[in-house]
Each structure stands twice: as C-alpha cells, then as structure tokens.
What we know:
The structure is a single chain. By secondary structure, this protein is α/β, with parallel strands linked by helices. The chain folds into 2 domains: 130 residues, Rossmann fold; 61 residues, Winged helix-like DNA-binding domain superfamily/Winged helix DNA-binding domain (Arc Repressor Mutant, subunit A), CATH 1.10.10. It has 10 helices and 5 strands, in the order βαβαβαβαβαααααα. The protein starts with a strand and ends in a 5-residue tail after the last helix. The mean pLDDT is 88.
Amino acid sequence: MKIIIVDDHELIREGLKKVTAKESDIEVMGEASNSEELFELLDKHEVDIVLLDISLPGRSGIDIITDIKIQAPDTKILILSMYPEDRFAVQALRAGASGYITKNNASKSLVAALRKISDGRKYISSNLAEQLASELELNYEKPLHENLSTREFEVMRLIVEGKAVRDIAEILSISANTVASYRSRILEKMKMKTNAEIIRYAIEQKLII
Length: 209
C-alpha cells in the first residue's frame, strides 16, 4: 500500500518511517509538515492512505479530512494523535477518517491499523471499542461536544484556542457571519451562553492541553 505521512514534527515522521520500513507491503510516497505540502503530494501521487496528525499548525487534521475526501475521494485517512481516543476519535471517524491511533501506541499499532484500513475496514483500539460498547449498554449520555457537527467542533476548538472571529473565518475559509452562526449553534447545542463557558468545558473535558 502507498501512504503519505503528515506531521509537523520531523522526529515523529522519521519514527513512523522506521516502523513502516520494516514492512515490504508498505511504501511511503512522501511526507508533509502541513496541509499545503500534503495537497501538493496528493496532486503528484495516487496513494491509498494518508497518515494524518490531528494537530497541524493553522488547521486541525479533522478539518483537513473533508478536503482530502474532495481532492482524493478514494484515499483513506488514519488519524494520528497525541490525544487519548476518548477525546477526539469519534469526531475523527464522523468526519470521514477510517481509523485513529495515538502517538504513544503508534509503534505497536500502526502497521495493523494500516492493513485493516487498506482492507476497507475501520480501525479503533480494543479499549475504545469496549468503551463504546459499554456506553451503549448503559444508555450513556454522551459528552456535549459529541453533539456538534464536524465544522461546529472545529469552530469550537478555535474559540477555545482564543482565536478571534476574523481569524477563525480566515483559517476555515468562511465568512465572519458564518463563524458567528456556528458559534450560536455551538452555544445552543452545548447549553452555554459565553465563550468562557466553552473554554471551561474544554478544560474540564481535557480537550486542550
């Protein structure tokens, strides 16, 4: 299978390449440190899977998923994250990713995840699968942020980072009015009134570091 590795840390990319270099059926077609470099590579190469860091400078991996699906609809996406699965995995899968692994487990799970996704299946860890099954069994009320759409979640993340409306509009290539509309829907869905409440919630849920 042909893959592209996308992470803004060179040491991480080198480590991932060492893991895949041991496998005769995996070929790294290129590596990128940001979304611009990624889409340049997708213009040049047909690849099976993009291994995508969820926390890239300027834009998150979750936001980039949609653009990858437009430019290369047959390319599958495996999200790589420093965050535990219970924080962002559901959002990533909902956005169109085929799998989610954490960086601290990448050396052990990367190859298995790539092969499973290459076969057309989804990849999540057994721990997350058990957690999701338990929540269904207990009729668990999911966290408020899981009620948000992918775009609403991305706007929320940028609000939490302290970005102004005009900055969010520029990052997501939408109008300031659209950002304001998303913010209103976020507040409504999360039963909140201010950005401060959103930020407090994000800290309590450990959505930010």
